[in-house]
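Field reference: sequence -> structure
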Amino acid sequence: MQRAKLSLVNIGFLFIAGFVATMAFDFWGQVVSPGIGWANLSPEGLAQSLLSSLGLPSNAFLGFFVHFYIVGLIAYPLGWFLIFQPIWIKVLGPAHIFVASAIYGFGLWVFAIGGVTTFAGLPPFLNFVGITWVALIGHVLYGIVFVAVLNPILRRHP
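Structure field:
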């Protein structure tokens, strides 16, 4: 597997993969998890807390906007494409991309639930309550779905 270049077309592919992965994350955290009696994720609440801690306007719309568009469609996809995947390929080669995608999702969880929560004035890892573990599964799912959607597209359109 050769590393794809960042082009306007590939940015569109990143958005598509980010969209599908964010939908999987939200479906898991807001439908499946509460449906089986586990916690209900509300990542827009974390985004609202972060905006407030930065002294920026904060409401439900902005929380959803930051979670869905800024994070799910832009930041996390670019993090994979520009940082994590190139390092993975340079160190371990193109093999085991499924494992890489799960590790990337785990890293997103550490960043979001370990770091962003603290920066937003919340306890690190939200004191390891039920939502913490639902978020872990959700972030790993995001990473796996994102790469599972993106890689076949990039193979056809290098």
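Note: The longest helix spans residues 60-92.
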